[in-house]
Amino acid sequence: MQTAKVSDTPLEFIVEYLHKAKEIADGNASVPEELRINLQKAVDIASGLDPYLEKMSSQESEPLAELFRKTMSHDWEKVYEDGKTLFKLPKECITGQVEGQVLKMLVHMSKARRILEIGMFTGYGALSMAEALPEDGELIACELEPYLKEFVQPVFDKSPHGRKINVKIGPAMDALKELAATGEQFDMVFIDADKVNYINYYKFIMDNNLLRIDGVICVDNSLFKGRVYLQDTTDEMGLALRAFNQFVTSDPRVEQVIIPLRDGLSVIRRVPHIPGPDTQNGVTFDEVFRGVQGKAVLDRLRLDKKVAYVTGGGQGIGRAFAHALGEAGAKVAIIDVDKDKAEKVAEELRLKGIQSLALTADISKPEDVQRMIDSIVSKWGAIHIACNNAGINKNSASEDTSLEEWDQTFNVNLRGTFMCCQAVGRVMLKQGYGKIINTASMASLIVPHPQKQLSYNTSKAGVVKLTQTLGTEWVERGVRVNCISPGIVDTPLIHSESLEPLVKRWLSDIPAGRLAQVTDLQAAIVYLASEASDYMTGHNLVIEGGQSLW
Ligand SMILES: C[S@@+](CC[C@H](N)C(=O)[O-])C[C@H]1O[C@@H](n2cnc3c(N)ncnc32)[C@H](O)[C@@H]1O
Q: Which leading EC class covers this enzyme (predicted)?
């Protein structure tokens, strides 16, 4: 015999009472037809909501579906009678598909990397959140019942995200104390265990800094069947949740909203600082404390609303620069002599949701340089970040270096970079703001060997002096000019058999013991393009694994 479903959420109670009222109305001939019709409408709206939310929310992964099936078909009463659990566990306390999806979204949106769950049960919420964590993310799930760890582990093992979950068995408060003692901190906490202790968990987390600033606490059952606001509530849990909600609402350290989803889901955010005067209780809430214009340091690296271009953006270092600038929020124009390569990288950026533009230009030609600057300005109205990265490298013994090789190298590496700086500099000086980042080379500092590349080395030394000169000349008018000097970068080209001895030789010259990857340079371009580096100009940022020091 199928047992009737017990109402558990405010909506389920509304549906239950509406059905009862409708039954009474149907059985009473004196009830006006209009009342019956309106009751039916209310039943339809209320009873259709949860199923609709389930249908319209993303469907769960197979391991989550398995957890749900396994939980629902398990005989929890028997497990309890057999003495395998301390308490009788109601299967209805599982976090379902819609709430699981909400938690997962919150993890994505807050970019949480470390999560704490208090009350794991059969791990539905834990796995939902773990699915949104990055590869190196971690979720610590506290659970009282040892039986549950054995129950969930086989399913966690089937999911690629299960290894992010670390289950701690025992009273949650013991786990919290242990975590606080070792200075742990979380981006997100999900409280979903014994209701009367919610307030103690919350206070402990806040008082012991277990939640980072801007971090979020989600709390399940915060409407507790509506009893938090019903006048006649007398039960311990309803009153505990009411007191909990009241406490959080008046806590100046946080802001909160209760989402009327299922039995209520509170979302509580730890605010960065207590609003008020600049000095309180001897603490100075200056820019160091609050962040410059309220922005924490990582936010000051953001490049939202900025327009950037990268020459030589079709491959290698330029491509990595373009991706990095776009990831940080900038619109990026990809410039290359090779049209197909520029278009390919622009398309890659578009696939990542980054606004991009592909342009063909040979930066050794003044008319191409001017055309590229004009095209970007006419499309996006400004240029804030210029990465003059295009360059060539030709090898020859100095006694044999032809004037043709020298001129070609200088025309691109130094004359071309100068022309780009000048053309974009005119735009930026008019704007009163700009960041120019030239690609120089470690060869501007040392003479890389054994390869012979006189014109390259000399041209790159020129790029550094160009950068220093412009960097000091224009800084007063808001334009900063810096350069990056990469060491030897790992490209497919140098993996050829003939170059193997050369690579071996280079490696023995590099303290870091490896060649540079283009990704090693990405943070530097974002830093130099951002307001975080506004006091830096004319600088040569060397990224070479220590090679120039040996
Ligand atoms: C509502 S269920 C959790 C549901 C779970 N979050 C999910 O996603 O399905 C509550 C869980 O809290 C656990 N619990 C209760 N008291 C606890 C305590 N003091 N410490 C740790 N876990 C506790 C229970 O054993 C139960 O598994």
A: oxidoreductase
What confidence tens digit (pLDDT) does each residue in 476-494 have? 999 999 999 999 999 877 7
Phi, psi dihedral angles at 115 (to 5 degrees)? -130, 145
| Ligand 1 centroid, distance to 122 Cα (angstroms) | 9
Q: How far apart are CA 32 and CA 26, in angstroms?
A: 10
Closest of 219, 209, 210 to residue 267, by C-alpha: 219
Q: Using the structure block, give the residue that is written with the tokens 């808001």.
A: 478
Identify the CA nearest to 416 among candidates 444, 431, 438.
Answer: 438
Question: Angle, to 10 degrees, between the axis of helix 62-73 and the axis of helix 146-158?
Answer: 150
Residue with tokens 């406490």: 247
Residue 152, ligand 1, Cβ within 6 A: no
- pTM here is 0.82
263 CB less than 6 Å from ligand 1?
no
For domain 62-270, give the fold.
Rossmann fold (3.40.50)
**CA separation for the pair 416, 363 (Å, rounded):** 5
Percent of the chain surpassing pLDDT 70: 99
Q: pLDDT band at 283, cuts 50/70/90? A: confident
Task: Please determine whether the domains at 62-270 and 300-549 fall in the same fold group of CATH.
Answer: yes
Distance in angstroms (rounded) separating the CA atoms of residues 439 and 441: 7
Helices (H), 382-416: 403-410
Count other C-beta atoms under 10 Å from residue 94's C-beta: 19
CA of 195 to the centre of ligand 1 (A): 9
Q: Is the dihedral of CA 153, 159, 160, 165 positive or negative?
A: negative
CA–CA dist 426, 452 (Å, integer)? 36
Domain boundaries, the chain: 10-56, 62-270, 300-549
Containing 352, the helix (H) or strand (E) segment is none
CB of residue 144 inside a 6 A radius of ligand 1? yes
The verdict on whether omega for the bond into residue 260 sits within 30 degrees of 0, i.e. cis, is no
Distance CA 203, CA 437 (A): 48
Q: Collapsing DSSP states into helix, strand and coil, what is residue 482?
A: strand
What are the C-alpha distances in Å from 306 to residues 184, 320, 369, 481, 519? 36, 18, 20, 16, 21
Please tell me whether residue 494 adopts helix, strand or coil conformation: helix
C-alpha dihedral sign at 221, 226, 229, 233: negative
What the block records as the tokens of 532 is 């975080």
First to last CA, the chain: 81
Fold (topology level) of 300-549: Rossmann fold (3.40.50)
Concatenate the DSSP letters of all residues of 89-143 into one string. Answer: PPGGGS--HHHHHHHHHHHHHHT-SEEEEE--TTSHHHHHHHHHS-TT-EEEEEE
Ligand 1 atom at minimum distance from 87 CA = 25
Active-site position among 124, 456, 527, 535: 456
